[in-house]
Request: fold
Amino acid sequence: MMNKTFIGLLFVASFLACNNAPKETAKEEVVSDTVTSPEVITYPEYSGTEPTKPEETELYEPVPPTVNPTEKNGAPSDAIILFDGTSLDNWVNSEDGTQADWILNDDGSMTVKNKAGDIQTKQKFGDFQLHIEWKSPAEIQGEGQSRANSGVFLQGIYEIQVLDNNNNDTYTNGQVGSIYKQGAPLAKSSVPSGEWNTYDIIYHAPEFNDQGGKIKSATVTVLHNGVLIQDHTEIKGTTPYIGWPKNEPHGKGPIKLQDHGDNSRVSYRNIWLREL
Ligand code: MG
Reply:
């Protein structure tokens, strides 16, 4: 009797032990044995005999030009001043080429004149560094894409969105600092509505072959109030409200500013550009 009970307990204990045993783990994935060592990048200028003196790796030419960063009233000495608050002489209506008809303010800024149309620089550019400051009105008006909507069109074609996104959500690839309908910004870094924002934009134009095919997309880097929001982002093509991006061949183009046509009341000031 005792033996039978003991054997019975043993049986139950062994059953529980088996049942609680860890499940068999999945077999480790077999790593392919075709992995090769990383490609070694070699630089012709750093090949040959290893230098033994510091002078052997110190260059004196070509000499970079000297640029005074604030010589032109806060703009670099080699900058092209596109707007300094004194006139709109460098700008024309994008539609008909007549003199730009936006509002010139006493404080050195200009404001979109509702339904006066987009304006653009008379001058056209390829690769450039652009500095531009913009402000949405302190007095909030409209929702979503209708709240202080404007835009900076690179080469007159590719829009970097200007929008009052403060407590005003919209689709991310259309928010402030986006490449409109293509690339959401890495961060939202606007100052409060009614204060001045800065955009510092580094742009490289697309390249096309003789047959009209694109061999290189445009790229853009944008700092919004000093915060990186576009990091050498590819621009796939046009930035339409409706439709896919398209990229027809083109040459140099102007800087264009958008009149969104809904009384956006966005202001701009201190616009300068350095050709690259
Ligand atoms: Mg816009």
Remarks:
- The longest strand covers residues 196-204.
- The pocket of magnesium ion is lined by residues 149-151, 159, 161, 258, 260 (CB under 6 Å).
